[in-house]
Write a structure and sequence with these properties.
By secondary structure, the protein is mainly alpha-helical. Helix content is 60%, strand content 5%. The protein has a two-stranded antiparallel sheet. Helix 1 runs antiparallel to helix 4, helix 3 runs parallel beside helix 4 and helix 3 runs antiparallel to helix 5. The chain is globular.
Length: 169
């Protein structure tokens, strides 16, 4: 069986962005039902030096679109990172899902050996093969921010569990 960069990226990001969307919708409903100011959840952190929930979601979205777009060699959409509500975060996830869902599988042909260069020409420049970029950088980064989002909501009393985290597969 051959390894497919497409199969290891787009469907995985779709599943997990779908789960992130669902848990954010549950958090929004929870806040409304309990009369909790949404900003209390959107600004939640587990430690003072970590990003709040809103930024965690933005970064998870950035990794999903960035990894898929770079592997498919397409221009990445730009987001202003100005979301301030659950509705705006859900819309951002929808935008990213539409972007990665529209990438043709054929664009990923040969991506495993394609060179991916991050921050070209800077002291932080990193070079990866497509496969290493996906497996050792992109997916771990995405899952870190997705998991942080889940943990922040769970910690703040949202009734979510492992099945919510996993999403539909």
């Amino acid at each position: 069986m051959s390894f497919s960069i497409y199969a290891a990226s787009v469907p995985v990001f779709q599943q997990m962005l779908g789960s992130l969307r669902d848990i954010l919708a549950k958090a929004d409903a929870h806040a409304a039902a309990k009369k909790i100011e949404p900003q209390a959840l959107l600004g939640a952190r587990l430690a003072p030096d970590m990003f709040p929930l809103t930024r965690q979601v933005q970064i998870a979205c950035d990794f999903a679109k960035g990894v898929c777009g770079r592997l498919a060699q397409v221009e990445l959409p730009v987001h202003a990172d100005n979301e301030q509500s659950f509705a705006e975060l859900l819309a951002r996830i929808d935008t990213v899902l539409a972007f990665i869902g529209a990438l043709p599988q054929a664009a990923f042909a040969g991506a495993e050996s394609r060179e991916i260069v991050l921050r070209p020409g800077t002291p932080k420049e990193r070079r990866f093969s497509g496969q290493d970029y996906l497996l050792h950088y992109g997916l771990p980064q995405f899952f870190f921010h997705h998991t942080s989002s889940y943990a922040l909501l769970r910690h703040n009393g949202i009734a979510i569990g492992k099945l919510d985290y996993m999403g539909t597969f």
